[in-house]
Design brief:
By secondary structure, the protein is mostly helical. Helix content is about 50%, strand content about 0%.
Length: about 70
């Protein structure tokens, strides 16, 4: 035997058998890759909805709206 790899008589090692039974998942696409770009009006409308439902405070809404309007 050469090297530090155990010989299993031509069969899979336990690690190889696990890897063969559990193929890796394909990498996920980032969510922004397929998302359409929103217009400035749509973004402001979404922020207003978040403010109305209580997700955002008035200070957070004002800060985000100034970012959108730049």
């Amino acid at each position: 035997m050469t090297g530090g790899v155990p010989y299993y008589g031509g069969r899979f090692t336990p690690a190889q058998a696990y890897a063969a039974a559990h193929p890796p998942r394909p990498p996920a696409q980032p969510p922004t890759a397929n998302a359409p770009a929103l217009s400035q009006g749509d973004q402001v409308e979404a922020l207003q909805h978040l403010l109305a439902t209580g997700v955002l405070t008035q200070e957070e809404f004002d800060e985000l709206r100034t970012r959108v309007e730049r």
